Amino acid sequence: MSLSAAANAAPDAASSAIERFLTQHLEGLSFDRSEPLARALRYATLGGGKRLRPLLAWRACEACGGDGSDALPAGCAVEFVHAFSLVHDDLPALDNDDLRRGRPTLHKHAGEAMAILAGDQLLIESFLCLSHSGTLDDTQRIALCRELAVAASRMVSGQVYDTLGGLPEGLTPSQQLRLIHSNKTGALIAAACRMGAMSRRGGLDSAGLETIGRFGDLVGLIFQIVDDLLDVTQTTEHTGKRTGKDSGAGKLTFPGVLGIDASRAEVARLSNEALEAIEHLGPQAASLRALCVQMSERTN
Questions:
Q1: Helix or strand or coil: residue 104?
Q2: Is 181 exposed, middle or buried (0-12, 13-18, 19+ CB in 10 A)?
Q3: Residue range 52-64: mean pLDDT, rounded
Q4: 91-128 in b/e burial notation, b at 16+ Cβ within 10 A?
């Protein structure tokens, strides 16, 4: 099977295990006199989604010779942070979006106050997810919590740059774009890769972690460029979220700065570089390579 065919194959054991882990975690929550909060968390997290970040964690663990299932807590912790970021990013004070994954955003569904509080709780759940895992030892838990905290902090910095400005002076538009999105989008994607590798039983040497981190940095940028392309080439009905909003809001985008054709060429270049970065990992990295191809070729 080609990499492209593998990337588009039916949901596999990893995808099923990820969805089951997220569902069981959220359905097991109990808040005193606050079932509406639990419902809001489930609405925000379980209402579809690519599950890209936990899949990257699983595949990165496999690529480093580990059992992908050992990366479930790490990958799903990143997914909780991602869900938190989407809930807050959709709020009126930020992007003011009313559609996410083909249905009303959480603040439209449950109210702005609940959306703010549910986002807060999702961030907390990410660290509880890591701390409660029986598959990790204490050293791994500490390292993973730090990795996730640093990535989440970078994500917030990227959102500040993207929404409020304050970028360092002297940067070209292309450099500004990369600074914004290496933080806002790329930090969590790279962290998912690194945290998956770090979840490997027996640990991982610094060289191996550097390789996976480099791959993560590249695919994080790929994801954002493709996202920007979809925003100008696809319809709202196709993507399940409002399109054309970034250019309309005057935000820097890769098609706006580079052009559509040059942006597509950059995706191809970065994809080749990412695949080369993990080439030496051999057959055990086949699924991680396929996921890279899927990210480069996705249409929603």
A1: strand
A2: buried
A3: 96
A4: beeebebebbeeebbbbbbbeeebbbbbbebbbebbbe
Q: Using one digit for the tens of pLDDT, what is the confidence trace for 100-131?
A: 988 999 999 999 999 999 999 999 999 999 98
Q: How far apart are CA 80 and CA 82, in angstroms?
A: 5
Largest CA distance in the chain: 54
Q: Would you say 98 and 104 are in contact if contact means Cβ atoms under 8 Å apart? A: yes
Cα–Cα distances (Å) from 44 to 20, 53, 85, 176, in that order, read 16, 16, 10, 30
Residues sharing a CB contact under 8 Å with residue 239, sequence separation 6 or more, in sequence order: 230, 231, 300
Give the pLDDT score at 28. Answer: 85
**Strand, helix or coil at 99?**
strand
**Percent with pLDDT over 90 in the chain:** 76
Are the C-beta atoms of residues 199 and 62 closer than 8 Å to each other? Answer: no
DSSP 127: H
- Residue 6, pLDDT > 70, answer no
Task: State the pLDDT at residue 263.
Answer: 96
- Tell me, which fold does domain 3-297 have in CATH? Farnesyl Diphosphate Synthase (1.10.600)
Contact call for residues 92 and 54 (beta carbons, < 8 A): no
* Residue 171 tokens, joined: 């940067």
Amino acid at position 141, single letter: R
Question: 2: how many CB neighbours lie within 10 A of its CB?
Answer: 9
Terminal C-alpha separation, the chain = 23
Q: What is the pTM of this model?
A: 0.91
Write out pLDDT tens, residues 134-175.
778 899 999 999 999 999 999 999 999 999 999 999 999 999
The 10 Å CB-count burial string (b at 16+, else e) for 230-245 is: bbbebeeeebbbbbee
